[in-house]
Design goal:
Layout lengths: L17 H17 L3 E2 L5 E3 H8 L4 H6 L1 E4 L5 E4 L4 H10 L8 E10 L11 E10 L4 H17 L6 E6 L3 H16 L7 H9 L13 H5 L10 H16 L5 E2 L13 E6 L8 E7 L3 H4 L7 E7 H7 L2 H4 L7 E5 L5 H14 L5 E3 L6 H11 L3 E5 L1 H6 L1 E6 L7 E4 L3 H8 L3
Parallel strand pairs: 1-5, 7-8, 12-13, 12-14
Antiparallel strand pairs: 2-4, 3-4, 5-6, 6-11, 7-9, 9-10, 10-11, 14-15, 15-16
Length: 422
Amino acid sequence: MTKLQAVRGMHDILMHETPNWEFLEKSIRFILSQYCYKEIRLPILEKTELFKQAIGNNTDIVSKEMYSFEDKNKSSLTLRPEGTASCVRAGIEHGLFYNQIQRLWYMGPMFRYEKPQKGRQRQFHQLGIEAFGLSGPDIDAEQIMMCDRIWKQLKIKNVNLQINSLGTSESRLNYRNILVDYFSSNRNDLDEDSLVRLEKNPLRILDSKNPDMKSLIKNAPNINEYLDVESADHFAELRELLDHVNIKYNINSKLVRGLDYYGKTVYEWTTDALGSQDTVCAGGRYDDLIENHGSSPTPAIGFAIGIERLLELIDLENVVAKNTPHVYLLIAGEGVRKFGLLLAEEVRNQLPYVKILTNCGGGSLKNQFKKADKSGAEIALILGENELEKKELTVKYLRDEKPQVTIKYSEISNFLSKALSI
């Protein structure tokens, strides 16, 4: 019989891990609300053509990494490899962009067929932020400030910001031709991937991680020297805004990003704490994407953060409260069970913040005490036939050497509110 296990590169998030995810998601949601971004929930499946048109046929994502298949109607569908294309599709479909400014966010699983390794799995989770209808560098700066606030909220210090401008499509085409001439004259120094990119997407050669090409890429023509006036001014204003709010950055003229829809501002937040997968957050402008899908021209900018990589950077032991009960209710005797369940409900009604774990399934008191201790609860409440008859509860402290006491039913809420360290 075949051993049951998850698909390679796709992992379960188990019970002891979910508090970490909940903490991270709650922290991020709070910050997004500070900036008045609204949540949009997008489908995991889209038509394959959406990603081909948005991301680009010649990108690694489309050519190598997408999970695509035909459904029963012979339509080609794809598990989303990123969220921007889906968000743009939703905005066009529902008329969200017409004479409107939208600040949207989404969070959820994405899928790419890559070699599984630390920080890069085939199912991974992203936070996506998108702003539509704003063309100035102020929204670029504000989104970078949002990232900075997230790092501070999560006490992440070892991240660095790299920024660049790719210019407009016209100036980028001019730079592309210059880049082709440069790399063509050094064709013998290009690796196999770069030779393919030279024909299809030469800017992506600048993103090569091949150490043998480091010197060649370093000496390549600088895109900043070929920017159009509009893009150069936009980039200068962005840097001025970042300087004003004291956000440190490095200008990386070789930063091009891996998706075809980017233009003007692009940026990445990187770290040296995750090995080879050093990008924690990446984003930029995609002012032409909505028009390319047949809708009215709409400026847009966004970024994505990898949730798994973010979890690797957080000191979880010091910031996350584990989901352990405050109280464990022991029930001794079959005839007592229904009263115990009702008592636990009354405690939850009166003290909504108290987490109470009721012993279900019977068992001796000795066995129940073992479960209570293992649960991590601070206090054990014991309800047996004697207690039921007297309408009392026996209280045993599990973490402190305080004496065992007896309290009346009517005293339980007042007692717990004082006794628990919450």
